[in-house]
Amino acid sequence: MSETYPSALLEKAVSEFSKLPGIGRKSALRLVLNMLRRDVSDVDEFCNSIMTLKHEVKYCKVCHNISDTDVCPICSDRRRDASTICVVENIQDVMAVEKTQQFNGLYHVLGGIISPMDGIGPGDIEVDSLVDRISTGDVREVILALSSTMEGDTTNFYISRKLMQYDVKLSVIARGISVGDELEYTDEVTLGRSILNRTPFKQ
Amino acid sequence: MSETYPSALLEKAVSEFSKLPGIGRKSALRLVLNMLRRDVSDVDEFCNSIMTLKHEVKYCKVCHNISDTDVCPICSDRRRDASTICVVENIQDVMAVEKTQQFNGLYHVLGGIISPMDGIGPGDIEVDSLVDRISTGDVREVILALSSTMEGDTTNFYISRKLMQYDVKLSVIARGISVGDELEYTDEVTLGRSILNRTPFKQ
């Protein structure tokens, strides 16, 4: 059922907000009315932050992560191990891995995964530039850290074929039961894999 | 645990988005990255719609609803019954009542309800202008359509005292079980009220 907005300006703003992912028209209206209640300077700052980001955003020339500089802080950090590259789908995944504090190498952000259903082919993601990085011979290990989905598996397979000719170790992040998971509630595929890929018990 | 954003511009935009009600930092990041993926013209339009609304928004001089004109379309509609005023808390409530297509009178938007806990007193809501509208003598009925909460009840009581001296009928929207509700899941206060306020059965 269509809503009747008391103002065309309001309706326009609501329809712009509702283009955002996961924001319906009802939430959009709530957000817009919140904006209306705030100071003009606040709203200015909100809009400026988006426009500035949009116009001045850079992507690291090496790993394609978002960066304020041509080469991102991670890629230019000499203390990090440049011989190990962790391949991830997107920027959020870099942040997720960084948060674990378990990885000290560099990243490679694909900017998507191969998904024919969504019209994303191998040419749409940053695989060629990954191959370029490997072809220098300085990289010893590539860790594939993609989602454990059909698309992730397809992309892993595609990358592995592309890197076959190089002398580089390929690994995939472990799949198994989550820490804290109860066995009886774990799905059988995950449980099956976690048995196949069992690791030596450490005391 | 604090996140490390790869870019200060990104962090600024995320922190602006997460000021919106109901948007956490994780959702904010998702929204900002969505913005980044869109065309510059799209992002321009998004920002323009908010800024235009913020700078050009008007409130109806009569009912205080948002309006593109000095007097809103509802207040200036001669076909509507100007002798009945429905008092609501906010703009969303006008839209909600309009959607029912059961009301053909005018509105009065209070812009809030009395809530001492939130520091909102009688002086912060549009009661005086309601009294002005009633004092002309043209209004026969005021329908109080506020939320069925302590704050709504307090506001209803305050308005009723303010209007006591005028010859105007005061009514409150019915409270009872929702259409479609099952009796056994209705809370006892609502069910109790719906029995006290029972209406003649119509076939």
TrEMBL record, chains A, B:
| Keywords, comma-separated and alphabetical | DNA damage, DNA recombination, DNA repair, Metal-binding, Zinc, Zinc-finger
What is any Pfam family matched here? Answer: Toprim_4
Task: Report whether Zinc-finger shows up as a keyword of the record.
Answer: yes
Chain intervals annotated as zinc finger (C4-type):
60-75
Source species, domain of life: Bacteria
Q: Does the keyword Glycosyltransferase belong to this entry?
A: no
The record places domain Toprim at 83-178
Checking NCBIfam families in the record gives: recR
What function does the entry list?
Answer: May play a role in DNA repair. It seems to be involved in an RecBC-independent recombinational process of DNA repair. It may act with RecF and RecO.
Family assignment from sequence similarity: Belongs to the RecR family.
List the PANTHER family hit by this protein, alphabetically: RECOMBINATION PROTEIN RECR
Name this protein carries in UniProt: Recombination protein RecR
Q: Which organism is it from?
A: Prevotella herbatica
